[in-house]
Amino acid sequence: MLNPAIIRPEIALNDFLPIFVSSSLVLVFGGIYVGIYTAVKVKYLKPWVMVIAYAFWTLTSYCLYVMGSLMHVGSFTAKALVVAAIGLFLLPFAVYYMEDNVHKSNEHKT
Amino acid sequence: MANKSVWSDNRFWQRSATWITGFASILLIWLTFDTSAQISMGTDEDIQNGVKKKVPGATVINYRITYEMDAKRGHEVPVIGGKEKFFGRDDWSEEEAAAMLHLGKLGSQAKNCMDCHTLLGNGAYYAPDLTKAWLDPAWGPDGSMQAMTGKSTKEEAIAEFLQHPDQYPTHARMMPNLNITEKEAIGLVAFLKHMSSIDTNGFPRNFGKIKGAINGK
Amino acid sequence: MANNHLTSESKQLATWYLTFAAILFGAQLLFGLVAAIQYIVPGFLYGILDFSIARILHINALVVWMVFAMFGSVYWLLPDETGIETIGIKAGKLVYWIFVAAIVVVVLVYLFIQIGPASDATIWFITEGREYIEAPRWADLGIVVVALTFVANLFLTGIKGKQTGIVTVLMADMIAFAGLYLAGMFFTDNISVDQYWWWWVIHLWVEATWEVFVGAIAAYGLITMIGAHRKVVEMWLWIEVAMLFGSGILGLGHHYFWIGTPEYWWEIGALFSALEPLPLVAMFVHVLYDWGKTQGAQDANGDKNSVITNKPAFTWFVLNAFGNFLGAGIWGFFHTLPQVNLYTHGTQFTSAHGHLAFFGAYATILVGVMYLAVQGKNGIKVMKNTKTSIWAVSMISGGVMGMTVSLTIAGYVQVLVSRAQMGATWAGYFDGQNGLWFTQAMDWRLILGIVTFIGFLLLAKDLLTTGKDPVHER
Asked: Looking at the complex, does the CB of residue C235 fall below 8 Å from at least one CB of chain A?
């Protein structure tokens, strides 16, 4: 089992609000990133807008970093957060790639 | 289609979903065995031998319980100290203590405690959390709640309050009379004392440590 | 209803389930209002219908109306998916009446008997006193019988008829859903063990099996309402199942931080909670993608009409994709890590998350199915929004969102005052409750609760009348 000897510093009173705000923004920005990415791919938006999508992903990662450091997360949770950030980055690529593949293979059949 | 990739293959994803679900379920079942062993209730012998259980046996009501910072674990843990009288006795047998705890736990459900209070932080948020209520300074020798009931010990004060909550106006939001008998009240106090001895990984933080309000916001 | 367009018995039964679900939805809101008033005027109905009773009815009505609507949804889509009439429809109808009768009895007992002495008889016949699953044990057994009949109907029909991906997912999901209920039926003196298994029911329902159910219904909705390609939708459904169960099953860990369970649940809970929002984000992308693609294909054919055949239902389905992400995703994520959950656990934050997540993830899509049923029952080809539909959806979602924000503010006060500064004692608790921000937030919660309730009345009116409205294409 994992070593339970984790010393967890208390959260400073003034840090609570930034923690809640940053952790909400993680998903807000993450959602916008994924939304813009998909919208560009299905040609609702012009290709150059993709830059904005990546900018939002950067903001997401920054918010995750702020949240993690204010909470004083342990090394394990910190790694989990990095994995989550990378996962969120890859998510729309994977989803789009798969959906498009199925679409194409079906259009040819019917 | 020639370039049919595995990523757009329905069967591939069906199998993946099955494997992932199966794997997660097996992991959960394995963890459940481990956790179940760790949270099974201890015995009187464990307490006497100083064996630390996450959930001590019912005879913990014969002992003094405190909530202290554990430097190694980085949070507070309940500490079982020396003998302490509970309703005049500190030699409740394993059977007697278990019967009291049983009545108390049954009572906590029969009276819907969890639909106003939180127990171990779960329940409704209309009334205070009861996880460590036994250790609340308000019920202690200098506490306002004990003084209000006119009783000289913590357990008697809580039992008195539980039987007539509508006679002790503690707050505009008063606890209603739930027809709790004296025997049930004693059982409920045993249940509360036992719950305060459960090792909740430091929840709630700083319980009872901060005396005056700092009045921040 | 003189001219009924339903030829399928299964769909007929579905409308019964959905109707009773809508009635219970109203009851849920009504008792929620009582509880909200009691936060502001504690003497309201004191000793007659105390907060605990109002809350039991509020949350039990919630669970039961959703279960009813879920059963209804399945009976609705089964004939479409399998291509045959549902098997065992007579048993289904009989069980429906048993279920309704049992609920009426349980509600009457809650209302008039309320509590009992600390004895097994109370657990068997009055209340089990465990949040969300307070129903007494006799009713538990009844629910098991009802659920087994439902699952049997689903399986027999699925095996005999065409077994589509949606039906396969539903079959697997519903048996897990029914089986998990058994974990919540026993009594133990050990409260840690009690809550350990209690969470198996609550969490594995709402954060695993119900979410997968929603995925299946959304898939059905996309196929029927905008004509999305079945193969795309079904492949996506499998991915969704993998992601939801992959993160949701072990996400159970975030309920095991503080109930006496070992510390390793911190890491497990944190890791899988961080992953839990991903399928919700993905679900949102998927709806956007399918809508864009099918509309794009139609536009390319020179047809400028919308691909949506049921506007109000589609509105609720889109709201579901968004609300799931917002309520379960954002509102779940910001208090889920153990470092901060230590302070937020058991505060109004949980309540805020509960309101928005149950609404966003479940209420929305089930109301959507109700509109699908109205469309089918009245033989409407393209169903349009009426003024009432728009007002209803706006007031309900605005009201719930407003309640959520109010409760979040109240929770924030509790975290700062009661928890971080006062260490969670009795005195600390009431210091937080008396704070100006807290009491103001509770006032706003009630006001927005009333808005939600008016929205519900409009919704009920719309569901009852829109079927006969001449604006729809028939």
From this structure: yes
